[in-house]
Target: Leucine-rich repeat-containing protein 57
Amino acid sequence: MGNSIAPHLESAQKTGVCSLCGKGLSEFPPQLLQLGTSLRTLDLSNNKIKSIPSAVGGFSSLKSLTLTSNHLATLPMELSQTKRLETLVLDHNKIKMLPAGLFPNFTQLKTLSLASNQLTTFPESLGTLRHLDAVNLSDNKIHSLPESVGDLQVVELNLNRNQLASLPVSLSKCTRLKVLRVEENCLPLEAISVELLKESQISLLSCEGNLFDSKQLRETDGYDQEQ
Model:
């Protein structure tokens, strides 16, 4: 492994960018930690990595971290020390739970994607992030949303293919939310509240594959205003 990634490490020392996609890695390469504060972009997608070392907190200049398609079940709390992080992509892993208090330190985070994991709860602290534009939590097992979801500053929220049976009215209070995707959940028609249709900033509500059809939704009070 060391020889195969050596050229990438040498290049990363100069550019601050390191991509080790599809290298068959079964663990986080410890050699990466030598890059320290010089690393700005790290992509370890399509490997077999099961855990991230706590020392990842030393990547204080890291702006983009992509770990798609690995075998991760959780994340180290020390990741929160990468306070300059703007993009965090963790799609197609086995994450069931995130450390409490992980997100509040990500004050620069703009994009968060945790699609195709095993999350059962919505990360409440996302509402504290002022720069967060897009959150993708599709293909998980989330069954409800907290009232605090109304604090989100996101422009797009993707909750497709979860287990939602209701949507809190507070969603209508998201001041920047333009795109809400809740396809293929367990939502009845009454889950699409009048407030969501009439009072929110949402311009695209994608909700196919729930317990109602598009005709029923079109006949709902406020639908024409939402569109």
